[in-house]
């Protein structure tokens, strides 16, 4: 090792030295990094294998005799090619086996759902699968190299004729480099390969063996910077139980349950107990305490546990001994093109072998049929024998496709006398004809190579595609705000006089329950406002008049306020929302004059507008000392607005006269079928405008109906068939098959209990709902089954309103018909006009209204001015 020591010329007095490392240390790290990248962590683009996987597959082929081999034996055989320990080989083999594609396994190979590890390699067995034998191996076109010790030959790359890397996925961490290629669906990869060969566009997305739900909006073709969000599939078993039936990729039932228990311990969610009933399929039961919203808990599980996670793919492969960063689409294109070239090489080798067989079969026929073997009887030397045969063949070889070689003649001399004596000219010609047919077919395949490759992929799909349908559901996720679903696990207190809020002020006034991720909004008597994070103790400002948990983008909570504008200033009234703020910044809600203070303040979650009484001080000749103000007359504006003048004179006090009702117009709610969620942002189908008492009606295909208050956190089952605003007066009409009586019944009913899920068909396992309608006067058409030897009975229309009256939900209904029914269809309903009292539309908080100058003028200087003073 060289060592050069120099003093830093700028610091002659310093004792520090710079040591340059040279010799073997100069290259060691780079050599190590290169080795880890190329030989351990990153797969090759040609076959999709890491070196250890390729060596395992090569060993499996060498040991293959159709029977199972002990994995310990396979691992030992692989160590001839892989210069590492048996544990790393066994782990790699278990990972290949768990993907259920290349290896046919026997014994306990672990469970990807529960995270259970495989049994020891001496107890489990494996052999190559039929698919692996078909797509991975082709020794005649494989390039070989010496193994690490020079005793054996191993493949440089295996001739894989399938996008195996994308099907299995790959993950590896090297030195300064990593790769994460997600697994994709078997059938979709084949379809994409066929589309590429046909010149069509394609898009492929991951598909995980653990199933679950996935949002691929940010997948970015699997390149660096992309992101896939995955979720567990959670549904409501009953009002106090949730069931997890599918888990996100990268987790198992043990890690998932641990994350739920940790979130419960931290107070983010609240659960009673968890049961893990997972066997062949996932089933985790989450029992909830009574009174807890299942829908809110589902969102909380996504927000605070491993039930939702984000995966960042990184497409990195080895090409020509160099790392290459490419997307999954380009990987598939290269794999497909490589498959075409491999098929071409196989066809060319097959063609050459067939032509050689045809060539020798033709020579053999000439040799025997023309009795050329007799020409060698008098020859005494080997050279003479070769020359005699060659001379005898010359007159008959004009139709051959290549010249005769000495090797051909030597093979002719090796034909046994027994074969010559039993030679059948017709059979020989049939063999030649068959070979010519095979040659013509192979040449046709080569001439139409793309069509041949498409047929190859199609055959793979037909042969091996059964049972490999997509498992992971693709869906766009809605963003869950953690503050809306977190359990309020701590208590908030306030010291109003001193101006402190926090969770540690237990001797002071209790405000509300909150969580440690909440923001708190507070107002003071001087007209100041601040939003801050929950903490043990935070100073806001003296004389706090209101404290609450702050909701971002909340346009419904309305603050009503009357304040004095500085010393000796006028009194103003204002209404405002607080939708967005900067945390820990103090906002002045008055006109920022010294001496301002608040006479009256209220916070109203639904825009309520109360009536207040204003009392003035007796000063001078003021005639009107008392009058009422209705906040409903005041427009809702921004928090920075000055407000409307109440009086120029000194206010003595303000009292609440009458509580108010909401001044907000009914809230419009939409249903977005893509994410299966309600929203107020105009996405999807409009359900209607909802007041506080309005409900939604939900009917499912299995005959369940319920009426509930619409909440944006609600979850909906995939078998939901009706979702609409509920009209309590409108009956529901249904035709169903009664499994017990084996007949069709029709019924009309009204919902009797709100919030309770009820079944309106019989509970027999064969009972099923045929059609359901929420129209006032529905019409159904019955199509009867044609019976043998009889004419088909004409279709029958039924006016449901006339056929049956409205009864209770538990009534069985009326028998529809005894005839066999083929199909029931709903037709256009009969016209109906519901007589309803028209409700006038109320003021929208977002409406912009212009106020004329005349309206702004006060009619009485002694009374309040209720129009904008600005």
Give short descriptive properties of this protein.
870 residues, alpha+beta, Topoisomerase II, domain 5, Gyrase A, domain 2, 4-stranded mixed β-sheet, 49 strands, elongated, disordered N terminus
Structure write-up:
This protein has 870 residues and is an alpha+beta fold. The chain folds into six domains: 1-31, no CATH class; 32-197, Topoisomerase II, domain 5; 228-311, Gyrase A, domain 2; 332-464, Topoisomerase, domain 3 (Orthogonal Bundle), CATH 1.10.268; 489-662, DNA gyrase/topoisomerase IV, subunit A, C-terminal (Neuraminidase, 6 Propeller); 669-827, no CATH class. Strands 27, 28, 30, 33 and 34 form a five-stranded mixed β-sheet that branches. The protein has a four-stranded mixed β-sheet with strand order 16-11-10-19. Strand 20 and strand 21 (500-502) form a beta hairpin. The protein is elongated, with a radius of gyration of 41 Å.
Beta-sheet strand percentage?
Answer: 25-35%
Structure class: alpha+beta
Number of strands: 49
Just name the CATH architecture of the largest domain. 6 Propeller
Helix fraction by DSSP (H/I, runs of at least 4) = 10-25%
Poorly predicted sequence stretches spanning 5 or more consecutive residues: 1-11, 836-870
SS summary, helix count: 18
Superfamily at the CATH H level of the largest domain? DNA gyrase/topoisomerase IV, subunit A, C-terminal
Stated plainly, the CATH topology of the largest domain is called Neuraminidase
Q: Span between N and C termini?
A: 83 Å
What's the main sheet like?
5 strands, mixed
Radius of gyration: 41 Å
What is the residue-averaged pLDDT? 87
Number of domains: 6
Determine and state the CATH class of the largest domain.
Mainly Beta
